[in-house]
Amino acid sequence: MTPVTFRERSVEELDTQKVVNIGKATRRKTADRIKASAAYPPMEQMRDRAREIRLHTLANLSEYLEQFAGSVERAGGHVYFAADAAEANHYVSQLAADRGVRSIVKSKSMVTEEIGLNHHLESKGLDVVESDLGEFIVQISGDRPVHIISPVMHMDRYEVAELFAEVLGMEYSDDPVALNAAARRHLRSIFLGADMGISGVNFGVADTGTITTVTNEGNARLTTTTPRIHVAIMGMERLVPNAGDLMVMLEVLARSGTGQALTVYTNLMTGPRAFDEQDGPDELHVVILDNGRSKALASSSAEILACIRCGACLNVCPVFREAGGHAYGSVYPGPIGAVLTPALFGHDEWGDLPFASSLCGACKDACPIRIDIPSLLLEQRAESMNRRGGEFAWLKPGMAAYRRIATNPTLWRGFLAAGGVFGKATGDWLTKLPFQAGNWTSTRDLPAPATQSFHSWWKEHRG
Ligand code: SF4
User: Which atom of ligand 1 lies closest to the CA of 311?
Assistant: First the structure.
């Protein structure tokens, strides 16, 4: 049976090597973020400014959308507002049919993952090739991205080497340079032969109609300038008012996402190729996607739309590190996904995701926009509980018993003493617990209760 809840998926996805790979990569990214932020003294002010800009843009989104659409059209581009995934997909496939497109190259874009664009275009007989190395690996392995900026964070180079040997026919090599070179050779002719290039949009600049994409591989530049048609798909919230505001976003995005001062390729494109220009597409189409965003914007979780998809909150999240991105079932995993997914797509299917959090607050600390993710998770949890008609049956008596014990010093000491006795009897680790608690020990051990409470230790040592 297909797993339908976070818990079921997380059990199914449990794989020690994946957890090790994700743990290593997220810790490295977090260390890089902290180092890059420390090396840039204005970082904290930039975060404040970035938050102001994003919240201001969301508060005035309809005006900025109108301005952006007008600017794109004045620069010679076409704009299409898609209410949902079906409309966006239909627009792109119809455009491809009208223009006789056969092959399409695509740069990494979460919004196209969200709408299942590849699948739709392939169902229309079109060849679509991912040009971001990570997304390319995802595509040829038939996998799904595990992280919003590092799609194959869960794989190591040995797995990629085996895959490339099998699919690309190269001699087995786990040397990253050789693997990169093989992907590059394979993709180069695809870029040159593609009729249409599809990209996401990191930021749209409202007053100029400029589309910004950031990559480290240069693939977005080739995707958007080599084919004769460029289609940019943008979530309707991904705007900034002007170029000055864009610079603030770029300052915080790369440092938070990859620990770089700036991504290697930052592309700013305004309109299609002009009459006197050599490079660029003949046609530019910008598809602005709603797909639940208007509903989210009108809700108490609107702040989540301020996200700039840097991935920092995933890297610090203890749940993401242990469960991995696939356990969320959504293209948006981790803390951002646990709020954004139900906010966009509803609680009937996704109402359990906000519970996949320890509410430790590390996500809020890491977020360059200082989005209050823990509070939004609580909002989403409350919404889920309302929809399921109230709290879990065990919660009320459980919390009442806890309140009774925790507010009575004698009972509390007795409770801790009982835990100590239990800890002595069981050893350092509990390997099998009964009832619901068995969910924990079915996949990992639990430290046994301390044999001595802090309270009694303090009594012994404070002198
Ligand atoms: S919520 Fe914040 S930290 Fe998480 S991806 Fe979005 S901008 Fe980055």
Answer: 5
What is the tens place of the pLDDT at every residue in 373-393? Answer: 999 999 999 999 888 877 777
The pick from 55, 309, 364, 375 for probing ligand 1's pocket by mutation, whose C-beta has the most ligand atoms within 8 angstroms, reads: 309
Provide the edge-to-edge strand list for the sheet that holds 239-240.
239-240, 203-205, 210-215, 265-269
**Residue-level pLDDT at 289:** 98
Q: Report whether pLDDT(1) > 60.
A: no
Which ligand 1 atom is nearest residue 312's CA? Answer: 3
Pocket test of ligand 1: the residue of 57, 256, 313, 317 to mutate, having most ligand atoms within 8 Å of its CB, is 313
Residue type, 223: T
Q: Could you state, in order of their start, the residue ranges of all structural domains in the chain? A: 40-291, 395-461
Output the CA 334–ligand 1 centroid distance in Å.
10
**Average per-residue pLDDT in the chain?**
93
Q: How far apart are CA 187 and CA 193, in angstroms?
A: 10
pTM as predicted: 0.90
CATH class of 40-291: alpha beta
